[in-house]
Amino acid sequence: MQRVVVLGGGESGAGAAVLAKVKGFDVFLSDNGKIKDEMKELLRKYEIPFEEGGHTHELILNANEVIKSPGIPENVPLVVALKERGIGIISEIEFAGRYDSAKKICITGSNGKTTTTSLIYFMLKNAGLNVGLAGNIGQSYAYQVATEKYDYYVLELSSFQLDGMYDFKADIAILMNITPDHLDRYDFNMQNYINSKFRITRNMNEEDCFVFCADDPVTVTELEKIVLKAQMLPFSQEREVAEGACIKDDRMCVTYNKDEYVMYLRELALEGKHNVYNSMAAAITAKAINISNKLIRESLMSFKGVEHRMEKVLKIKDALYINDSKATNVNSSWYALESMKTPVVWIAGGKDKGNDYEPLYELVKDKVHTLICMGIDNKKLHDCFADKVDVIVDALSAKEAVELAYKYAKPGDTVLLSPACASFDLFKSYEDRGRQFKAAVREL
Predict the structure, then answer these.
(1) From the candidate CATH numbers 3.10.450.50, 3.90.190.20, 3.10.310.10, 3.40.50.620, the one assigned to the domain spanning 311-442
(2) For position 353, what pLDDT does the model report?
(3) Rounded to whole angstroms, what are the CA distances from 166 to 20, 42, 200, 202, 441?
(4) How far is CA 165 from CA 118, 161, 236, 263, in A?
(5) CATH match of 94-302 with 3.40.1190.10
(6) What's the CA gap between 87 and 65, in Å, rounded?
(7) What is the Cα–Cα distance from 52 to 41, expressed in whole angstroms?
(8) What pTM was estimated for this model as a whole?
(9) Helix, strand, or coil (residue 307)
C-alpha cells in the first residue's frame, strides 16, 4: 500500500488526508504546531493517525509521496530532507486534481483574486450550475473531491499552491496581475515569483482559455517570452481588444467567439478601478462557459463583495470606517488609496514582506493626513512617510489603532485599514485583523 504523508493539519492538510484515506492510501498527518479541534475531529472520524507539536522524522521520511500545506516554506529542514531522499512533494490542489473530472476555473494574481473568484462562483450558482468553491477560499478542495460531486470548480490559487502543482490542468486560467508580493519566500527574486504565478497555465491545450490583464506590464512581458496553446482572452481598461473585454466610453464590452455583451460601468455593483478589472475577468469567464448575457448582467449588478476587501463598516461622527484588511501588499493598498474621494486616516503596517512603498508616495501625500502604524516594527513606515503626512503614530492592537483614528479623524474623513503588510506579527490572519478592527469600531 502506498504511503502518503500530509504536512500541516489546517483546512488544506486535513482535507488532503481525508481524500487520501478515501482513495485507499496508508495516510499519516503531521503538524509542527497545534491542530484545531474541528480538524482533529475530522481526522478521527476518518481514522487517520496524526501528530501535532512536532514532526517524527521516521514516520515521514518513509512516505511514497508527501502533500505539503502551502504555508510551509521550501527551505525548512524536513522539506529539504524529503527532497534529498527524492520523495515527491505536491500540493493539495495537485493531489485532488487527480481524482476530479469537473471543469476547473482557476484564478490567481497578486491582487483581486478572492473578489474575482467569489464573483465567478456567484455567477455560476446564479446560472444554476452544480459548482464548488475551493483553493485559497472556502472549504478544502481535496475534502470536497472526497465527499461531493461537482461539474465545475472555481479555485482561487496562491503562488504557494501553484508551486506544488505539476500535472494539474485548468480549463480556464485567470491571471489578474503580478506585482511584488511574498518575495521573502522567493529569495527576493521577482522572476521566481512570476514563474510561480505562470504555473497556472501548465498543461493547457487549444480547447482551454487563458484570461489575463493586458494592462499588467509584468504579465505582458512574460507572455512575450513563452508560448501558450490556450486561447488568449485579454481584458484591458487602456486599449480595445478583439476578443476578451475592454472599456469603450462608459461601457464594458465583452466579446467571445464574436458574441458581444455590453454593460454600463455605473451598473456594476463593485466600485473602483480595480473592481472593473475583476468584473471584466468574471464576465469573460461567464461568456466562455455560455452563461447568458441576462444572467451576467444580474450577477454583476447584485454581487455584494468580499469581507475584508474595501468593506464599509460604520460612519461615526461623519467619518467612514473601511476594513480593507485583505490588502496584504503595496499594490492592494494603492488601489484602496486611489479610490478614496475624501481626506484619509490610514491604518497600515504589520509583517513587511520586503515592501517597496514608493508607488504610494504621491497618493499618500495627496490624500492622507494621519498614518497609524499597526505593527511590532514600524521603522520602515516612519522612514518612508514621515515627510508625507502631518501625523504618524504607533499602535500595538486593532483597538488602540481605532481609538487613535477616532481621535484624529475629522467629519467627512475616511478611516482606512489597508495594511500593505501581512498580519502575522499581531494577528492570526488578515481575517482576524479585519474582525478585530470591525469589533473595535463598533465599540467606539
Answers:
(1) 3.90.190.20
(2) 77
(3) 18, 28, 10, 7, 45
(4) 22, 7, 29, 37
(5) yes
(6) 6
(7) 14
(8) 0.82
(9) coil
Per-residue pLDDT of 257-289, as tens digits, reads: 989 999 999 999 988 888 999 999 999 999 999
Q: For residue 217, which amino acid is it?
A: P
> Do 248 and 269 meet the contact criterion of CB atoms below 8 Å apart?
no
Provide the grid cell at 199.
504555473
Q: What is the largest CA-CA distance in the chain?
A: 68
204: CB partners within 8 A, 6+ apart: 169, 170, 173, 210, 228, 229, 230
| CA distance linking residue 333 with residue 317, whole number of Å | 25
- Strand-pair category, 50-51 with 26-30: parallel
Low-confidence ranges of the chain (pLDDT < 70): 181-183, 186-187
Residues 6+ away with beta carbon under 8 Å from 385 = 357, 364, 368, 371, 392
Domain ranges in the chain?
3-90, 94-302, 311-442
- DSSP for 318-366, please give it: TEEEEE-TT--SHHHHHHHHHT--S-EEEEE-SB-SS---GGGHHHHHH
Q: How far apart are CA 216 and CA 179, in angstroms?
A: 9
Query: Measured between alpha carbons, how far is 8 from 33 in angstroms, rounded to an integer?
Result: 8
Pick the CATH number of 3-90 from 3.40.50.2000, 3.90.870.10, 3.40.50.720, 3.40.50.280: 3.40.50.720
If you write DSSP's letter for every residue of 190-218 in order, what string do you get?
Answer: HHHHHHHHHGGGTT--TTSEEEEETT-HH
Q: Which of 236, 232, 197, 237 is nearest to 211 (CA)?
A: 232
Q: Strands 231-236, 244-248: parallel, antiparallel or unpaired by DSSP?
A: parallel
Query: What amino acid is encoded at 27 in this protein?
Result: V
